[in-house]
Structures are given as structure tokens and as C-alpha cells.
Amino acid sequence: MAITDVTAKMRSNEEILGRSDLNDADAILAITTLDETDVIHAVEDNADAIFTWGYDKGERAKLDKLYEKAKTSQWNATTDLDWSTEVDIEKMVREQNFAMSGSHELAPPFDLSNTPLKSWGDKEFLEFGIEAQNHLLSQFMHGEQGALLCTAKIVETVPWIDAKYYAATQVVDEARHVEVFSRYLDEKLEGNYPINAHLRMLLDDIINDSRWDMTYLGMQIMVEGLALAAFGMLHQTTQEPLLKKLLRYVMSDEARHVAFGVLSLEEYYQELSSAELRERQEFAYEAAVRMRDRFLQQEVWQRYDIDVAPLIPMIQQDPGRILFQQLLFSKIVPNCKKLGLLDAGVPEGQKGWLRERFEEMDVIQFEDFADTGDEYLELDAVAQDREAATA
Ligand SMILES: [Fe+2]
Ligand SMILES: [Fe+2]
Q: How many C-beta atoms lie closer than 10 Å to residue 4's C-beta?
């Protein structure tokens, strides 16, 4: 196949996303959470468990270094966080709103007079802010469980011993992350939300895929790349000490996880054909859109029994929200670039398919931000705190 044929064969939005217009709000909202009462959700993982008899530790030096780092940077959610901290939820919501918008006003900055929110005042918006915080942390918790299952799958499916060793440490990290978000929701907030339908579709797709590198691309590059950016923003905007420390410690682990994805795929993608890389581009795009769709927080609006559809055009023009949505991609885009996915399949100097998709999503401006190959050394909270304690 000629190299220029590759882009022509990319699947359409309709085929990848089930809708032709990326921004079709009705189609996004039509996908709703089901089975809220079911506790168990089973997904086919379609993969062989792979033994390797090549036990040479350190054959992949960068993965070995990451593994050694992971062993010395473990923390204990029970004893390293102060769970006796009293959390003032209202204060937390107000502080975060101020940090994001620069205003003490909780109402969004647009005319609500012809909307279902016309009678809402400070009290209602505060309540909504508490619900939205609850929803956000609930999705973090569910996403962490997705990471736990995906990484357990990687232990089985990756053919390299250094990657199996590292992934095993990540499994422990992810168990701890599920634990901390679950405990925070349970003890410090009130109740939690079921998994968002878009996030669940994405996690199901990642686990369904039989190819070991797709687990990495979906989880370590896309979901964890977005999580690292989202945790970073929340860490910067919250003053609540328990959440702040919790996020700093989780980010310290997440930076290693994203590095694990970058270091592993960087090597593996060298071997792939243009057609195989094309499938990776499409998968990255699907993941990016599903994650963006979930930030409409439709389950919160459902709880209020408000039809959010007429509000969407306004919500989408809120400058604070636009910035937040863009920044979510500040780790993903440079990492996709480092992996060669932005412009794979086209001759040098031409725009690649994934680059064009990221342009449509208005996130391509992050392509030259630092990639996450070794950011984990800077974000190592455990090592920093240990050093400070002995100084
Ligand atoms: Fe995690
Ligand atoms: Fe992670």
C-alpha cells in the first residue's frame, strides 16, 4: 500500500464514535448510564496470558529504572494521609470556584434567564457544586479501578519481563488509588455517583481489545494522561489539605504510570506497519472524545431532573470550562506526538490524521509541551517528603 493511501482509509466519525458530528450534544447525551443497581459488570478480555522464559532483568534499562523507583516510592494510604482532617465541603467548593474563575460568584458567567436555572441563586449553585465535586471524584475512583484491571491484564499479556515487573508495582499503586478515592468519598463527601456511560464504554473497549499494546495506549497514554492533568489542576485549585496531599501522592504514582506507557510503546511502535499505526491513531481519537464527553457531567443534571440539552451551547462557551477541557489534553497530545501518532501514515511535512482530529478538538497547541517520559522524577512526592523529614 502506498503511504498516502493510509489516511484515506481512516474510519469516519460515524464509524468510530457512532455520530458524524464530533460536537453533537444530543448524540452525546443520548448515551446514558444504565444498570445503576448492578454491582458487578463483566467484560471479555480476549487475550492470552503470556509467559516469557527471557528473565534478563534490565534488558530494557529505562523500564528497569522505573521499576526500581516504584519499589522505593511506595506509600500507605492508611498511615501517610491524615484521615482525621475535618473537611468543609462548602468552603472547598467556593475556593475551587474562585481559583478556576477568579470570581466569588458561583453562577456561571452567562445569561440564564431563559433556562431551567433562571430561579437558581447562590444556595442552589453551591449545592450543585458539591454534587459536581462528588461526581468528579466518583469518576476518578471508577477510572482508578479501570487502571487496576488494565494493569493486571498487562502483567499477563506483555511479553517483556521488565514490563511485567513494573506493571506488578502499578497494580499495587492502583489498588491504593481506588482505596483513597473511595475512602475520601465515603468519609468526607456524601455518597457517590455510578460510572459515567462514556467512561464505561471506553474502559470496556480498552479491556476488550486483544492486543497488549492497546491496553497501554488506552490506559497509560490516554486515561492516565488525562488523569494526571486533571489531578494536577485539582491539586492546584483546592486548598483542602487532605485532598491536596492525596492528589499529590496519587500524581507521584501516575507520572510513573504514564512514563511506563511512553517507554513501552515507543519501542513497540517502531515495529508496526502504517496500517497498524492507523488503528492506534483511531483508538487514541476515540478515547480522547469519550473522555471529553464525560465532562458534561450529565448524571448530575439527571439528579436534578433538568434537561441539560438546551444549556449545552452556553456551557460550551464558558471560557473557564473551555480552558479546563483543553488543559485536560496537555499531557496526552505531547505523548501522542512522542509516539509518532500525530503524523503517522503521511509523508514528512504533511498533516497526519490524528493531528487534524486534535486540531478539531482545539488541543493541538499542547504538542510541544514536555512529554511524560521522565517527569516522574520531578513529581516523586514520597522521595521529596522523606528528604524533607531527614533534612
Ligand atoms: Fe491511578
Ligand atoms: Fe495510574
A: 12
